[in-house]
Amino acid sequence: MEMLTFLIPVAILLGLTGLGAFIWAVRTGQFDDPQGDAARILTDNEDRPLPDRH
Amino acid sequence: MTLAGPIEQGCPSGLAPVGQGASGDVGAFVVQKGGEKSLSLSVRGAKCAGCLSKIEGAVNALPGVRQARLNLSNGRMEVKWTGDLDANRIARTVTDLGYGAAPFDPDTGDAAAKAEERSLLIAMAVAAFAAANVMLLSVSVWSGHGEMGETTRRIMHAISGAIALPAALFSGRVFFRSAWSVLKKGHANMDVPISLAVILALSVSVHETIRGGEHAYFDATVMLLFFLLIGRFLDARLRRRTHAAAHELAALQARSATRIGVDGTTQSVRASDIAPGDTILVAPGERVLVDLEVIEGVSEADESMVSGESLPQAVAPGVRLYAGAVNLSQPLRGRALGSAENSLLSDIARMLEAGEQRRSAYRRIADKAVSLYVPLVHTTAALTFIGWVLAGAGVREALMIAVSTLIITCPCALALAAPVVQVVTSERLFRRGVFLKSGDALERLAECDHVVFDKTGTLTLGEPQLVRTDDDDDAIARAARLARASRHPLSRAVVAAAGAGQVAAGVREHPGLGLEADIDGVVCRLGSAEWVGAEEVRGESRLRLWYVEGDSEPRRFAFEDALRPGAGKLAEALKKRGAGLEILSGDSEGAVADIAWQLGISDWRAGASPASKVARLEELREEGCKVLMIGDGLNDAASLSLAHASLAPGGAMDVSQSASDAVYTGAGLDAIEGVIDAARGAKIRMLQNFALAAGYNVIAVPIAVAGFATPLVAAIAMSASSLIVTLNALRPGR
């Protein structure tokens, strides 16, 4: 049972990492153009990150 | 891409037809910030990676362009550049590639809606995280039932609480805020029982954890919030999308006008920047944006959008031109009589407002369900508490059971029932080219039992077509040599019938009379009977042209305003669905009677003014009919907003589009049948969902009231009901 003191924090930490990644993705506009992003990987042009948004 | 070879037009994958390029002057829509200029364009027809790289590549290659980025999901393109590159060249670059491009005025309201959507999404993610992790702990508590020691269980509950408390308080803010604001006003909405359930469940669970009790409802609380937030998020997203669609349609009509300054220079300005008294130049083929009094020029104007009249009107100095009219033959100068906002006939604007107010009073099915539901939930929970106390249970035990009742009856399925159906249906319609303006429009569309059509531009194409006879091919080809020089609708009909060919040199246009040119030394004339010196035949179709070469016998061409493809099929289909049909038109009696006869519609009124259209709709309402109005003109705007539900074609006046519930695109009328079927289907799904949600409560409430609703039962019951409702909405339909 002592294992739990180790496993539960690890599980929660993993969950928090996922949550943090999702919030970051939403805040930086990763879901603004799902169709465009799917198409953009097929183009040869260099695709630089967007300049900062206001 | 090489510029030497022929450039493929439109989408290289063939996913969209080649777009129409006409975009007018976009110079007025450029935003300048420091040394950098930016322009937003709405691009139509871009569908795949090929489109994306073609458009971005071509625009990026223009001199001075710093950034060009096309959003494929919503068709917006942002271009930023420095230097003196002409904005029209950017738009032309896009249209030359075979895509439609229109200047787009960035929507300020959209930013707020987007922020709301994002915060809901984040709240949903937090609730999902908490639900998943708390469930992990809860499952071990449930499966260890009877074996797990009290200390271990208490630790499990404590960890659950540590996750659930902050998560629930964070993601529940939407509900708490809304509940508090209505409570202050002395009302109640669905958020009141939700907030109550969340707060009570959290406090009871905290108390149980400290006491070392067996049941804690942390998992149920966060799961409840998660499901409810899905519904809220979908609702917000649908509202933003429908709003964006409406804005987009308005943007397609965002035109600029040419203003003549005091010093005689011309300047391209947005419609909204025109002030009363400005002198405006209206080129042939251009649409009038504000009401004008003509001060110079003689021409003809197509006022079919304004009055429904299909024949062009003569225009001379002193004549008032209403916004929406199209100048046909000669350039005109006019004095603006008002700004763009108050340019519409003031009584139309007033009638519009009256209709809007009436429509906002419409109560959605979901609202009705909630108003029945809220008191029921509160009463049941309160009665449960009192009942158990009276039956001799302790206050603590009675409170636990009441709280579990409150949680289990909490309207997850109810909150999902309508939004999921609306999102799914509007998405399906969107793919068929129908833009829905609001979610509740579906419910109103489904209820309609009487369809009122406008004629010009809605049932008919709104442009005359030549009626061919057997032996006039040669005459048409000859007349077309003159007609190609003119924008008059009848000339264009002649050209359309003749096909491509040459234009006669030196064609002179005499407004109100016709065209004249010397071809190989022979004077040829195309125009009215008076113009060619022919005998006027009385009592015939009003649309006709005469053509004469020198002294030869004049030839007569007859025209008709042809029905749109699919009009006959639509009339049949609507009749089959039990709807009454009626035509309300501003056009002349003969034209309307002809169309009505062709469609087999016995109920029609001609020469109707906007006010008499409104009066007729009021009359129908008195009779208890739920009217679906379909129209496109300025004269229909008031009736569109007054009708129970309304549809407008994509080519309609912007005011008519904004007054209607949905806008359909495409030349045919096939979409209308689809819209009505989809709306009726959606309503059935919603009612099914409400029935499922009610059925769930019929089973779950007795269990909860009897005190058997352990956290495990609550978790299974809630997720099962939400899942069933969602699957029912997603089930593929017709």
UniProtKB/TrEMBL annotation, chain A:
The chain crosses the membrane at residues 6-26. Residues 43-54 have a biased composition (Basic and acidic residues). Residues 35-54 are annotated as: Disordered. It comes from the Bacteria. Keywords: Membrane, Transmembrane, Transmembrane helix. InterPro entries: Cyt_oxidase_maturation_cbb3. The keyword Membrane applies. This is Cytochrome oxidase maturation protein, cbb3-type. It comes from Henriciella pelagia. The gene is rdxS.
UniProtKB/TrEMBL annotation, chain B:
The keyword Protein biosynthesis does not apply. It is a multi-pass membrane protein. The keyword Magnesium applies. SUPFAM superfamilies: Calcium ATPase, transduction domain A, Calcium ATPase, transmembrane domain M, HAD-like, HMA, heavy metal-associated domain. Pfam families: E1-E2_ATPase, HMA, Hydrolase. Keywords: ATP-binding, Cell membrane, Ion transport, Magnesium, Membrane, Metal-binding, Nucleotide-binding, Phosphoprotein, Translocase, Transmembrane, Transmembrane helix, Transport. PROSITE patterns: ATPASE_E1_E2, COF_2, HMA_2. Gene3D superfamilies: 3.30.70.100, Calcium-transporting ATPase, cytoplasmic domain N (3.40.1110.10), Calcium-transporting ATPase, cytoplasmic transduction domain A (2.70.150.10), HAD superfamily/HAD-like (3.40.50.1000). Its main location: membrane. The chain crosses the membrane at residues 120-143, 155-176, 216-234, 372-393, 399-421, 690-706. Residues 37-102 form the HMA domain. It is found in: Cell membrane. InterPro entries: ATPase_P-typ_cyto_dom_N, ATPase_P-typ_P_site, ATPase_P-typ_TM_dom_sf, ATPase_P-typ_transduc_dom_A_sf, ATPase_P-type_domA, HAD-like_sf, HAD_sf, HMA_dom. Belongs to the cation transport ATPase (P-type) (TC 3.A.3) family. Type IB subfamily. This is Copper-translocating P-type ATPase. The lineage of its organism: Bacteria, Pseudomonadati, Pseudomonadota, Alphaproteobacteria, Hyphomonadales.
